[in-house]
Amino acid sequence: MTLSEKNLIIDLKGPFEGQVLDCLFTEEQIQKRVSEIADEISSDLKKSPLPPIMIGVLNGSLFFMADLMRAMSIESEMDFIKISSYHHTSSTGTVRLVKDISAQITDRDVILVEDIVDTGLSINFLRKRMLSNSPNSLRVVTFLYKKEMSQLEKEPEYIGFVIPNRFVVGYGLDLDQKFRTLRDIYAFAPDKDIAKKRRGDHE
Fold it and tell me: Which of 80, 89, 112, 149 has the highest CB neighbour count under 10 A?
């Protein structure tokens, strides 16, 4: 890949070679927003008798969750869950559990941490699964939210940025497991059809 004036040019062999991606959010903008969300969560849960349990949805939430926890002014515990809502290159419309949490969340304050919410299938599934374990409270934080695509039964309590329906990479988000480690977030052109290259871990 080549970075030039906050654009990303894909130089990997494949169907998107030569595509120019726009920078939606810089590292500075990302970290500023992460700090703001961390302050909100810390304020909301500062009187909790026990530290909240942060449950990251793998793989994309890893960087966001790490930055978020370090920016919070209260202690927190962590766990991870992994699901799949895609089969090969197309959406199945269903969600499959790949890795469950190990933490006991009954009577605990739980925060589900997502990198991006688009259709909302994953969050609808995870909310129901978490609530079946009778947590004291359940909140969802997502860094990116495609509101226009959402079929959520309940909106996330904390949202980093609302974005248009564009495919994005960077800061944990991937294209065929590439570009996760970019510190900025980049987007394909709105009219670029990349339905055949949807992320395979979950929505």
Answer: 112
CATH value at residue 141:
3.40.50.2020
Residue 163: give the domain boundaries: 2-86+95-189
Report pLDDT for 189.
86
Bridge partners for 144 per DSSP: 116, 161
What lies within 8 Å, CB to CB, of 87 at 6+ separation is none
202 lies in a domain? no
How confident is the model over 59-75, as a mean pLDDT? 97
For 16-67, give the secondary structure using H, E and C. Answer: CCCCEEEEEECHHHHHHHHHHHHHHHHHHHCCCCCCCEEEEEECCCHHHHHH
Inform me whether the pLDDT recorded for 170 exceeds 90: yes
Among residues 113, 124, 41, 37, the alpha carbon closest in space to that of 81 is found at 113
The pLDDT tens digits of the residues spanning 71-94 come to 999 999 999 999 987 543 344 567
Active site residues: 118
CB of 111 closer than 8 Å to CB of 87:
no
Q: What is the mean pLDDT of the chain?
A: 88
3-state secondary structure 92-105: EEEEEEEECCCCCC
Give the separation between CA 42 and CA 75, rounded to whole angstroms.
9
pLDDT recorded at residue 80: 97
* Domains of the chain: total: 1
For 40, the token pair is: 């909100």
pLDDT tens digits, residue range 42-60? 999 999 999 999 999 999 9
